[in-house]
Structure formats: C-alpha cells, structure tokens
C-alpha cells in the first residue's frame, strides 16, 4: 500500500469549511483513497473513499487531483463535533487491511 | 444496540498474566480484525480473519494469539502480558460485498493496562 503524508494538526472555525490535505505521491492505479476519523479514543469511523473521481456523501467531499498524487477531504460546515483525528489511507480494493498513519488532528473552535 | 461490542472496556492486569479480549458483532460480516493503538500513534494491525477458518498475522502479532469461535466472535489473547502491551485495542469488522465499497466498522475499544 502507498504511503500517505498529512499535516499533524489543523485548526478550523465552527461553521467554516475544513480542508484536510493528503499527499500520496506513490499511489498505484488500482489503489483507492479512504478517509476515516477518530473522535477522542473512540473507534475509527469511515467517512468517504474514492478512486479518481471526486466523491460526496452526507458527511464530506473528497477531491482527488487529476494525477491522483494528492487529495483533500472537505467538511463543508465544520462543527465542534468534527474535532477528531483524520486518517487518509490508500489501499487496493479487495485487499482488506487498513494501514493507519498518524493522521491530522483537526480542532474546530467556536 | 451497538453492532460491534468489545469486552471488557477497561482492564488492569499484571505482568505475566494471561488475558483475553473479546469481540462480538451483529453485522453479519465475515471479516474481523484486531488493532492496537498507542498514545499519539495510529492503529496497527495485530491479526485478521476473513472467515471462521482463516487466521492471518498482521504487522505486530508477536505476543498475541486469536481465536475465531464463530462468524460473530473474534477473541484476542495475551498469553503472558508485558507492560509494553499497555494500549487501546480495537476490534473491527467488514463485509466481503463489493470490493471497492469495503468499509471497516470499529468497536468502542478496550483500554488495557499491564502493570
């Protein structure tokens, strides 16, 4: 699985969009980009995933660059409950292991 | 009711003791996983099982063993606990389903302290 690089921490004001970057310059053509988050020692929670097209669901949007070497997770209107560690993971579909790095600690403030 | 449950939620034990952490799921998933998390670090995979007859080692299996008693149950054992096994342990499940849609669902975690 390709390695990912994320900033260790980010801040965001409540109600504003939170844009969390992830670099995966060694990603292979058959690897997907997944995002999970972990709220204060709870079990990680799946957010979204994509291959090459941008994706959106009720939680977030995922923007993947055309060369697929980086991506951005967007929380359109961050709330205090979005304060968490966000993990960007790349993996091959069908190969079920998830390799977690250290993630980005997002702090949403009033 | 939670789909993935872990027992106990907290455990304190002494060096050399054998302990078992249990995981149960009601999601009907075939695949189950055990991870550990150390403070300030990401999760690391200990063992995983793709069905009842399948057991695989993860990144850090030394000092651990597992048992898949049924589709819904996956237990993690520390045969002789040592202090550096103090950590937060998570169980997770996933469905075979559509391969690209695979999502892992995590339990609430077990906080283990080895004295």
Description:
The complex is a heterodimer of chains A (110) and B (115). Chain A has 110 residues and is mostly beta strands. Helix content of chain A is 0%, strand content 47%. Chain A contains no helices and nine strands. In chain A, a hairpin with a 6-residue loop joins strand 3 (31-38) and strand 4. The mean pLDDT of chain A is 91. Chain B has 115 residues and is mainly β. Helix content of chain B is 0%, strand content 55%. Chain B has strands spanning 4-7, 10-13, 19-25, 31-37, 43-51, 54-57, 64-70, 73-78, 87-94, 105-106, 110-114. In chain B, strands 2, 4, 5, 6, 9, 10 and 11 form a seven-stranded mixed β-sheet that branches. Chain B has a four-stranded antiparallel β-sheet with strand order 1-3-8-7, with no helix packed on it. In chain B, a hairpin with a 5-residue loop joins strand 4 and strand 5 (43-51). Chain B is globular. The termini of chain B are far apart. Chain A binds chain B through residues 32, 36, 41-46, 49, 51, 87, 93-94, 96-103, and chain B through 4, 31, 33, 35, 40-45, 48, 50, 58, 88, 90, 92, 94, 99-100, 102-109, 111.
| DSSP strand count of chain A | 9
Structural class of chain B: mainly beta
Helix content of chain A: under 10%
Question: Which segments of chain B are poorly predicted (pLDDT under 50) over 5 or more consecutive residues?
Answer: none
Mean pLDDT of chain A: 91
Distance between the termini of chain A: 37 Å
Low-pLDDT parts of chain A are: none
- Tell me the strand percentage band of chain A: over 45%
What portion of the residues of chain B fall into strands of 2 or more residues? Answer: over 45%
Rounded Rg of chain A: 13 Å
Q: How many β-strand runs of chain B?
A: 11
Cα shape of chain B = globular
In DSSP terms, counting alpha (H) and pi (I) runs of 4 or more, how many helices of chain A? Answer: 0
- Using only C-alpha atoms, the radius of gyration of chain B works out to 14 Å
Count of DSSP H/I helices of chain B: 0
Order of secondary-structure elements of chain B: EEEEEEEEEEE
| Overall pLDDT of chain B | 91
